[in-house]
Write a structure and sequence with these properties.
It is built from 1 helix and 10 strands; from the N terminus they run E-E-E-E-E-E-H-E-E-E-E. It is mainly beta. The longest helix is centred in the middle third of the chain and has 5 residues. A hairpin with a 2-residue loop joins strand 1 and strand 2. Helices cover about 5% and strands about 45% of the residues. The strands form 2 sheets. Strands 1, 2, 3, 6, 7, 8, 9 and 10 form an 8-stranded antiparallel β-sheet that branches. It has a two-stranded antiparallel sheet with strand order 4-5.
């Protein structure tokens, strides 16, 4: 059994933002379509369209080549997001979970509290899910 200490690699639009990331999730979601027919005694579903989503939590950094400079031009566009469990090479035991053409709808450009580091909560919706192993 292999267990991973949470230390994922987060890449958004080919830029490695791992150094600012504190949390990440990629969720494969397939909408359920009801296919119940007369005579059935329980509701039944079949898989419909995928409605994948991902979330990433990052520290805000306004420096060149950091979070703000990378993300600001991406708002309202489709991007590729890759999250892998560790910084080891992509492989069957360290896959890259990828959403291609995931939509980044908003960017909280300023959300600050006295005495705390500024944190961004990003949501990516839809996109095509793949698991890269090489």
């Amino acid at each position: 059994m292999t267990a991973y200490l949470s230390n994922p690699v987060v890449t958004i639009a080919t830029v490695d933002l791992t150094g600012w990331a504190t949390a990440a999730s990629v969720n494969v979601i397939r909408e359920g379509l009801e296919d119940t027919t007369f005579g059935m005694d329980s509701r039944s579903n079949t898989g419909g369209l995928y409605a994948n989503e991902a979330s990433v939590t990052l520290f805000m950094d306004y420096s060149a080549n950091a979070t703000y400079a990378t993300l600001a031009p991406l708002v309202g566009t489709k991007v590729t997001l890759v999250v892998s469990p560790s910084d080891a090479a992509i492989s069957a035991t360290n896959p890259g979970f990828t959403l291609t053409d995931a939509y980044l709808g908003d960017l909280p450009v300023l959300s600050t509290t006295l005495g705390e580091l500024q944190v961004l909560e990003l949501s990516f919706t839809f996109g095509t899910y793949t698991e890269v192993t090489s």
